Amino acid sequence: MNWDERYQAGETPWEKGAPAPPLIEWLRKRGALEGEVLVPGCGHGHDVRAIAAASPKSTVVGIDISATALKEALRYSSVGREVFQSADIFALPQSLQCRFDWVFEHTCFCAIQPEQRLNYVKMAVSALKPEGQLLAIFFLNPWDPEDEIPEGGGPPFGVTKAELENLFHPHFSLIEEFKPTTAFPGREGREIVRLLRKIRVGVSA
Ligand SMILES: C[S@@+](CC[C@H](N)C(=O)[O-])C[C@H]1O[C@@H](n2cnc3c(N)ncnc32)[C@H](O)[C@@H]1O
Question: Once rounded to an integer, what is the mean pLDDT over residues 145-171?
Answer without folding.
Answer: 86
